[in-house]
Every structure is written in C-alpha cells, then in structure tokens.
C-alpha cells in the first residue's frame, strides 16, 4: 500500500481581487483597498495596523473622506511605498 494515499493534502488559493479594484490605483483610498485585498486583510485588521477606527478605513476606501496628514507615515509604511509621488 502506498503511504502517500494517507497523507493530508491542502492547498491555499488566494481569492482574486475584486473587479472594482483598478490595476493602477489613482486615489489613496484605492491604494489602501488594493493592498488590503492583496494581503487578504479585513478593514478592521488594517484599522488596527494604522491605529484608526474601521469606519475611517471604509471612508477612505469609498472616497467619502481623506486621512489626516498625521496618518500618512503609517499609511506609507503599510503600503510599502508612497502613493504621493
């Protein structure tokens, strides 16, 4: 009997990005949304990382509000690049 038939098999497949997320994000909210989805994080996870409330992330991603300048450094660190240049 082949031992491999009893070995557990698992495969991790990433969920595809939503169609609403552009390949080349233009706004800060789109940059945050794309990075969040690439990492498979929830809005509450990103909020905890950035030190803001979940509603802030929702507002930024939906372009209803913009982050205060004091959050720019943590946003740049989260994105691992500056969307402002």
Using the 3D structure, state the CATH architecture: Orthogonal Bundle
Compute the separation of the termini in Å: 61 Å
Low-confidence stretches: none
Largest sheet: none
Structural class call reads mainly alpha
Mass-distribution shape? elongated
Following the backbone from N to C, one meets helices and strands in this order, namely HHHH
Query: Into which percent range does the helicity of residues fall?
Result: 40-55%
Supply the CATH class: Mainly Alpha
Count every helix, treating DSSP H or I runs of 4 or more residues as helices.
Answer: 4
Overview of the molecule:
Helix content is 42%, strand content 0%. It has a single domain (3-79), classed as lambda repressor-like DNA-binding domains (434 Repressor (Amino-terminal Domain)). The chain has 4 helices and no strands. The longest helix is centred in the middle third of the chain and has 12 residues, at 28-39. The N and C termini lie far apart (61 Å). The protein is an all-alpha fold and 85 residues long. The protein has helices at residues 28-39, 43-50, 54-61, 72-79. Helix 2 (43-50) crosses helix 3.
């Amino acid at each position: 009997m082949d031992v491999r038939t009893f070995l557990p098999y698992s495969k991790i497949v990433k969920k595809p990005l939503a169609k609403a997320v552009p390949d080349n994000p233009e706004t800060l909210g789109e940059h945050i949304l794309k990075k969040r989805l690439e990492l498979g994080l929830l809005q509450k996870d990103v909020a905890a990382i950035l030190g803001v409330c979940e509603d802030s992330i929702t507002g930024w991603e939906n372009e209803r509000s913009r982050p205060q300048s004091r959050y720019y450094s943590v946003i740049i660190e989260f994105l691992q690049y500056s969307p402002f240049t």
